Amino acid sequence: MLDHLRPSWRQAYGRNSAFVRDGLQLWEEAVTRALDALVERQGEVVVLDLKGLRRQPGGRALLREWLAPRGFSGAQVWDVWACSRSGAQFASATHVVWYDRGRLLLRPRTEDNWGPLEWPSPEEPLALPDGRILCAELLDEPPRRFPDDPAQAWLDADKVQWPLRVRAWQPGDRFRPLGMSGRSKKLQDLFSDLKLPVPEKKRVPVVECGGQICWVAGLRADERFKVGPETRRVWHLWLGSPGS
Predict the structure, then answer these.
(1) 2 has a pLDDT exceeding 50
(2) For 166, left (φ over 0), alpha (ψ -120 to 50), or beta?
(3) How many other C-beta atoms are found inside a 10 Å radius of the C-beta of residue 9?
(4) Greatest CA separation found in the chain?
(5) How close are the terminal C-alpha atoms of the chain, in Å?
(6) Residue 96 and residue 203 in one domain
(7) 77 and 34, same structural domain?
(8) For position 72, which CATH number holds?
(9) 108, 136, 151: which is the final residue of a domain?
């Protein structure tokens, strides 16, 4: 009897398998079309319109299809979907994705190209990829004495506009180190003067305001943002560890 039923069973199994394959192909094509409409490549960075994706039916499933092949777990996909804090960053073994004002920016993970991160508000510390944090407080008047501590910076509040931008240094970066009378200097030369090891160079946070470097965090502030005789209020920035 089994021999008699086997041909029809095989036919039914074959037809059902074909339906499953067709359904998977249909799903893959629908996912590709939906994501193509929301994704834009900018050099090595891929930008996804998360705000638009959230309006799509099944948007969270589409996000998983986009992130899972790049090594992100289901829990990370869930956290990315719910994220609303600009500058928040998530990493897999091969890629880094960060949230920026309704968009997701994705690129391959390397040791020396982290960021850029947006520091949207001084009210919240900014977490860096290595676990350190950047903090800020507004002082109503300049301090009488400035501690000799490169992990801290004091900037003229009238010259600083939020949000700030934080990133790793890049070849060709220049700024005007405090105390050099406005002369510019390459960051690479600063690192060489300080005999900074290569791994430490990659960890240095470069803080930008309006496209200009205002602080090479942990090393030197920029002359253009210094506290002077006309300064009324001061932004006190510092680089520390969680809980500091």
Answers:
(1) no
(2) beta
(3) 10
(4) 101
(5) 77
(6) no
(7) yes
(8) 1.20.59.20
(9) 108
Structural domain boundaries, residue 76: 2-108
Half-sphere exposure of 23 (CA within 13 A, CB side): 6
Distance CA 112, CA 188 (A): 14
Taking only the tens place, the pLDDT of each residue in 73-115 is 999 999 999 998 877 878 787 888 888 889 998 888 765 667 7
* Inter-CA distances, 5 with 9, 10, 19, 140, 235, Å: 6, 9, 21, 88, 82
User: Cβ(82)–Cβ(59) under 8 Å?
Assistant: no
Distance CA 233, CA 242 (A): 26
Question: In the 3-class helix/strand/coil scheme, how is 2-33 assigned residue by residue?
Answer: HHHHHHHHHHHHHHHHHHHHHHHHHHHHHHHH
For 173, the 3-state DSSP assignment is: coil
232 and 122 in a common domain: yes
**Token pair of 94, please?**
């091969």
Label residues 79-90 b or e (16+ Cβ within 10 Å = b): ebbebeebbbbb
Domain total for the chain?
A: 2
Instruction: Give the tokens for residue 82.
Output: 């719910």
Element at 53 (helix H, strand E): helix 50-54
pTM greater than 0.70 (yes/no)? no
Q: Provide the CATH number for the domain around residue 175.
A: 3.50.40.10
* Whether residues 154 and 99 fall in one domain: no
Q: Both 142 and 33 in a single domain? A: no
CA dihedral sign of residues 66, 169, 218, 222: negative
Domain boundary, last residue among 55, 87, 108: 108
